[in-house]
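Record pair follows.
FIRST:
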Amino acid sequence: MRYISTLLLALLTVAMVTSPSSAFEWRNTIVLEEDGMSWSYEEEYSGEDVGVYRSYADKNIGNNDGHISAWELMKLDHRVRNRLYGSLEKELDVMFNGSAKNVHAFDVDAEISRSVLGSTDKADIINNRYFVTYTFEKNFFEMGENVSFDGEANTDFTITMPEGVEIIDTEGINSRFIETVDNRTILSGRFGVEGLITVEFSKRDV
């Protein structure tokens, strides 16, 4: 999923009034197993973006009374889940050898922060999280020689590879860091300007 404005328009319903800034942070946590993977997204609003987020939700999802109530929060949560699932039906954001034909989005979930509740003038920090679980038709090591992640440009990520993976090469990463913990390779850094990471891998010799 690429470009924050497009992502928020599709998933968060506030893209038309918010933009990347020091008051907005987006983090990606990806965990791969041999039979599937999870990708969790965490967004944080602070400063002026908090008011923009609440006001847009109140006017476009709620009753525009300057207050976010429980039913409006539930409606926002439902809207986000549906749009996230709909966007993944159109195009998956993980591919092996450039194809997503053996990858399936299995489950979609969201946690909209309860701090959204209350007056739209509140300045509390908002932390929302979104989760997608994928399944693979084949074992990870049979899916291909490289895996790509279509993410948001210039956002932080951590990718935990399946046990036994050796990373051969990477593309599209800024500030790359690789470490091995309990025989699992962990790759971290930032998505580059294109928002596409490709990791070439092999199975480590025992």
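SECOND:
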Amino acid sequence: MGIFGDSKPTTIAGFILAIISFVLQLTSFATPYWMHIKMGTVDSHFGLWQMCLSTTSGTTECAQIECEKFGCPSFKGTQALETLAFIILLAAVILVAIQLFVMKDKDILKKAGAVCCIVAGAFALIGVIVYATQKGVQTSNLHFSFAFCIIAAVGGIVSGVLLIIG
């Protein structure tokens, strides 16, 4: 029987993939490594909320991103879409966990979690596209947080599909 009871393997796989996608989305959401630029001795990296620059003394100083220095509407759009994706993916994991461990007979919770996974994945992908198409963003400078967000988005969509068929 195990920890998941009599749940179908596709449901278990969808739940585990949703958790992995959430962790990747959390990492991409919180870390300042969406873009990395090295110009001479200056090393800088940017996230959704902070930009960090290396100093001549060898330390790194970070500051909140000021909207005036970036494409404000598109950057704010990326922040909004990634925030929504993060919250909705968290809701999906909670819904499916409740269905798997507490209310085993309420299949609607799993279906709602599946829809949340797909919607979160779509929002995250749109946010990534908006970020990558901003003026001044070169694809060769995109870094691991950006990639984690793409992986989380695709994982969320696949997780939603697995939960629907499970």
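COMMENT: The first helix runs from residue 9 to 30.
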